[in-house]
Amino acid sequence: MKKAMMTFLGVFLFINNVNAKEIKVNFKTCIDGDTAIFLYNDEKIKARFLAIDTPETEYSSKGEQPLSKEASEYTCNKLKNAKKIILEYDDNSDKTDKYDRHLVWVWIDNKLLQKDLVSKGYAKVTYLYNDYNPLLYLHIHHYIRIFAVLFL
Predict the structure, then answer these.
(1) Main-chain phi, psi angles of 135, to 5 degrees
(2) Which residue of 15, 69, 122, 146 has the fewest CB atoms within a 10 Å radius of its CB?
(3) Which of 83, 130, 135 is nearest to 109 (CA)?
(4) What is the C-alpha to C-alpha distance for residues 63 and 55, in angstroms, rounded to an integer?
């Protein structure tokens, strides 16, 4: 019964989330641990990773913060070695920020980069507004993608 309920929940949530805009991109360059530049149809997309914040690098007005180099190196290595990168826009978020960076979820080889950065201690969950709960999104969406890869 538990397996059937999880299957139903997975299919229901997957169907309801199909409208999220996703684009397959190529990696261009890293800015820091939570910002990178990608190429999509020869267009440069400067992307800021949704719902997380990594320590600031030496280029920040705040100066270099602890773990900034490690977070940046981790992100850059993951992106450089990725076979497939998907940027996903969240219907519950603005498309761009005040610096005209695209606000996106970053999927590397079917794994959510934000989740990896938080679980390894390189990022903290932040920028939460109103009733929006990206942690719930992170967990549910991760399991939906696993379900889709395994069963659909």
Answers:
(1) -60, -45
(2) 15
(3) 83
(4) 10
Q: What is the set of active-site residues?
A: 48, 56, 101
Task: Express each pLDDT in 89-140 by its tens digit.
Answer: 988 788 999 999 999 999 999 999 998 998 898 988 876 554 555 555 555 5
- Give me the count of residues in the chain: 152
Q: How far is it, in rounded angstroms, from Cα 61 to Cα 70?
A: 19
The three-class DSSP label of residue 99 is: coil
Backbone torsions φ then ψ of 39, nearest 5 degrees:
-115, 135
- Tell me the C-alpha distance between 118 and 135, whole Å: 11
Which residue matches tokens 């020869």? 42
The token pair at 73 is 């190196």
Kindly report the pTM of this predicted structure.
0.72
